[in-house]
Structures are given as C-alpha cells and as structure tokens.
Write a structure and sequence with these properties.
Elements: E1 3-8, H1 12-23, E2 28-31, E3 43-44, E4 52-53, E5 58-60, H2 66-72, E6 77-80, E7 87-91, E8 94-97, H3 98-104, H4 111-114, H5 117-128, H6 136-142, H7 149-163, H8 172-177, E9 187-190, H9 194-202, E10 207-208, E11 213-219, E12 222-227, E13 232-240, H10 244-247, E14 253-255, H11 260-268, E15 270-271, E16 274-281, E17 292-295, E18 301-303, E19 315-321, H12 322-331, H13 333-348, H14 351-355, E20 356-363, E21 375-376, H15 384-389, E22 396-398, H16 411-428
Parallel strand pairs: 1-2, 1-13, 2-10, 7-17, 11-14, 13-22
Antiparallel strand pairs: 3-4, 5-9, 6-9, 7-8, 11-12, 12-13, 15-21, 16-19, 16-20, 17-18, 18-19
The chain binds flavin-adenine dinucleotide.
Flavin-adenine dinucleotide (FAD) binds near residues 11 and 13.
C-alpha cells in the first residue's frame, strides 16, 4: 500500500483533514489538481500593497474554528462591517448611511440586509406550522412582508451575494438547516491574507500539485487513484474534498459508481455563482467614513478591501452573486469593468473614470477544477448535505464546504468538515 490515506483537494477541508491525520502518525498524501494549494482561498499580493482576496475574504464570526488557527499560527485579524453608520445604501437615487436609509424606507425593512433574523423568523414559523418547503421569495410574500419596492432589489442583491443564489432558488428548510448557530455576528479579515493561513496549514503536509485525479477505483479494502498525469496510487482510504461541481458525473470517474442517494445529493444541491470586481484608483472619491455600500444598480455590494489598514490604497471590490454575477460574466471582462465604472460614475461623478487605474474580474465559475463559488440548498434539498457527507463502502470519505450541514459556504465550515472526516477515517483504520 502506497499510503494510509490519500486526500483529494488541497483547500481548507483537505488540508485540515491531512493535518489531523498526520498528527496521528499516519502516512498521508494530498493530491491537488491546480498549480497551487488553497482552492477557494486565494490571496493576490500584487494588485495593491495590501492583500486582495480573490476568493474567501472574511472570517464570519468571532467564535468560529478559524480563530484557533489564526492564534496558533500567529496571524492577525482586522474587524469589518462593525458600524452601520459606515454602511451606505444607494437606492432610488439616494446615497445614505444604513440607519438613515432605514428610516426613509418606512423603518425596519432594511434589517433584511444587515441581519437575516427577519427572514429566519419567518422561516421558523413556516416550518413550525408544518408547511412544505418553498422558496424565499414566496416565503416573504406569504409572510406579508411588503418590502418597499425601492429597496427590494437591495434585499435581493444581498441574498444573492451572501448565498450565491437568488431568492427564488433558495429553500426555506435549507436556510434553517444552515443556521451558523454560535458562530457570532462579527466579521474579520486576516491581515496577512487568507493564503497565509493556507500556507501554514499546508506546511507540514505531503502535497502533489498539478495532479488532477481522473478516476477512483475502490474495493472494501483499498482505493486506487489514477491521475491525468498517468500516475496511479493506492491507499487504504481516500478523502474526497473537491467542490460540488467536480463531483458531478463526467468529472472524476468512480468505479464502482457512487450510490444513487449520493448522486442525487450531488445533482440536487446548488452550485452558486459569485463574481468579484476589484478596481484600483489613483485617488479615492468616496466619503472617508464609507466602508461599504449596497446598490440597486448592476453590481450588488461594494467594500474597501483595505478598510482599517494603515497601508490602504484606493481600491473597491464589488461582490455580485447569482443573477447579477451571470449578467456580468455574459458581457465579458472589459464590459463588466465598464458596467462597474458606470455604476460608480452615476453615484460619484466623472472623477471615477479619470482616476481609474486598473481592474480585475474574478469569476469563480471559470476557475478550473472549481467552477463555482459556494453551495446552496434549493427547495426540497434540505437533508442532502448530510447524505453528501456520508462515507461509501468504508473506504471513501467526503468533506468540503458543501458537506457542512450547519456551516456550508464558509472557510470555517470547510475546516470543520476536514476535522470531522479525519475522525471518521481514524475510527475505521
Ligand atoms: C468569491 C468567494 C468568496 C467567498 N467568501 C468567503 C468569505 O468571505 N468567508 C468564508 O468563510 N468563506 C467564503 N467563501 C467560501 C470558502 O472559500 C469556501 O467555503 C472554502 O474555501 C471551501 O473549501 P473546500 O476545501 O471545501 O473547497 P476548495 O477550496 O474548493 O478546495 C477543493 C480543492 O479540490 C481541488 N480539486 C478539484 N478537482 C480535483 C481533482 N480532480 N483532483 C485533485 N484536486 C481537485 C480544487 O482545485 C481545490 O483546490 C468564498 C468563496 C468564494 C468563491
């Protein structure tokens, strides 16, 4: 046998699983298809003097497992989105801090943007009364929530960004399942960039990059993995942590095929879309206290990636999900930048164009071996994350953000899934 355990995928889940198993003294190898580790955690250190996150940017919550690593590795974190006064709303021709915008919208409707509690409350009532699963758009309508039409698109963009799916795609029961309970309400950025966490996490591991796994042949006693490079390897157990899109038929070939309930979960869970547009300017043109803003235009939600840093330069990131992301992708790189500049020009005037320096369009659907942003739970798909996470035949084990029932779509959910799967493997060796 070449290895005790082979881990497929060197993202947060795969690297966490490998670290746990190596600590137990096992012979572990990680296989990564891309030329770098980290997967959807990928920091750019060239675009600005401070890190720019191409993928995951925030640590969502003051209590999540990521903090354990931040502290252990000696990294630092900066708070984000702490003050509603710094959060602006661009809707119906007005540009106001969130508290004032909430007052003009008839009071309270904008709570759907800064907190999900209103929708979660409705969802809980819906489930408690035993009603069948439905989408969030129908839930809001049935709950008698009449969002001021001027602010409806802001709320829609907010969900599309957070969940990488539209209100009509997201299921009520899935929303309740993924509760993020106990994570905490505050957001942070890792000052050194998410990739430095990846680097430390992967430092002790044996990893082969540029090694896409093509097929997984398994029996009750061993797994044989064949790579597109021609390499074949054998292990007692394999841990599969690839994104949901890469589990879909036609990507990695399993022999015998995965069970029908697993295939059903793979096809019915949703693979969400996100586009990030990162624009650099020679000078800033926004209010000094503006940290972020939500717009009813074409680009969704904007923030300053250098917020709170002494080395911040004028950079803005636009975060567009689902329908907005698809539209931007359809137009192509240059047109997407022009659309973003036009949204900003309408808001801040012509100096936007004269001070524009450079831009990046980060489309995660186009990233090879990933092809998605993060998973979501459509109507009727609650319970399928648990099915996705189940081991097969005592030799194949599954981790990754999409397998995290309570904390999917996050780095900390992926880390936890890696630790969970390591424990499952340990129990079987
Ligand atoms: C734009 C964006 C913004 C985000 N923002 C946040 C955020 O602010 N906070 C947060 O907590 N989370 C955020 N996330 C989500 C977070 O990045 C993911 O949940 C997490 O990184 C997923 O980790 P993973 O290990 O499950 O998967 P991945 O990181 O995708 O790792 C899987 C690995 O498997 C590899 N692979 C695929 N196919 C093969 C194959 N055939 N052979 C070998 N290797 C293969 C891939 O290349 C990849 O490296 C964001 C994601 C995106 C895309």
């Amino acid at each position: 046998m070449d290895f005790d355990v082979i881990v497929v995928g060197a993202g947060a889940a795969g690297l966490s699983a490998a670290a746990e198993l190596q600590d137990l003294g096992l012979n572990v190898l990680v296989l990564e298809a891309r030329d770098q580790i980290g997967g959807r955690m990928d920091t750019d250190y060239q675009f600005a003097p401070h890190p720019i996150e191409r993928g995951a940017e925030f640590v969502h919550g003051e209590n999540v497992v990521t903090w354990e690593l931040i502290r252990k590795l000696g990294l630092h974190a900066l708070p984000a989105f702490q003050n509603d006064e710094y959060y602006y709303i661009d809707a119906a021709g007005q540009f106001l801090p969130l508290p004032q915008a909430s007052r003009t919208s008839g009071g309270g409707t904008l709570k759907f943007i800064s907190t999900r509690s209103g929708v979660c409350e409705l969802a809980k009532n819906w489930a408690n009364s035993g009603k069948p699963d439905t989408d969030l758009d129908s839930l809001l309508a049935a709950g008698g929530v009449h969002l001021d039409s001027r602010f409806y698109s802001i709320v829609r963009h907010s969900f599309e960004g957070l969940d990488a799916a539209g209100l009509r795609q997201l299921g009520v029961y899935g929303l309740m399942e993924t509760s993020y309970e106990g994570d905490g309400d505050s957001d942070f950025r890792i000052s050194e960039g998410y990739s430095s966490l990846v680097y430390h996490l992967g430092q002790q591991a044996s990893i082969l990059v540029n090694t896409p796994v093509e097929s997984v042949k398994w029996t009750p006693s061993e797994v044989r993995l064949a790579m597109t490079t021609g390499l074949t390897l054998q292990a007692q157990k394999a841990i599969i942590t690839v994104p949901l899109t890469q589990l879909q038929p036609g990507k990695i070939r399993f022999d015998p095929p995965l069970p029908q309930d697993k295939l059903n979960a793979i096809t019915r869970l949703g693979a969400g879309h996100i586009v990030k547009l990162v624009l650099r300017f020679h000078e800033s043109f926004w209010p000094a206290k503006m940290e972020c803003f939500a717009t009813d235009k074409h680009t969704g939600f904007w923030w300053r990636p250098g917020w709170g840093r002494s080395d911040e330069i004028p950079v803005l990131t636009a975060y567009a999900g689902a329908g907005l992301a698809d539209r931007l992708v359809k137009f192509g790189h240059d047109a997407a930048i022009q659309i973003a500049l036009e949204d900003l020009t309408q808001l801040f005037g012509n100096r936007v164009r004269t001070t524009y320096a450079d831009g990046m369009v980060l489309n995660w659907q186009a990233e090879s071996y990933i092809e998605m942003a993060y998973s979501y739970c459509p109507v009727g798909a609650a319970g399928l994350r648990a099915v996705l996470s189940r081991p097969v035949g005592g030799v194949l084990f599954f981790a990754g953000e999409a397998t995290s029932v309570k904390r999917s779509a996050t780095v900390h959910g992926a880390i936890e899934s890696g630790r969970r799967v390591a424990e499952e493997v340990r129990a079987k060796l």
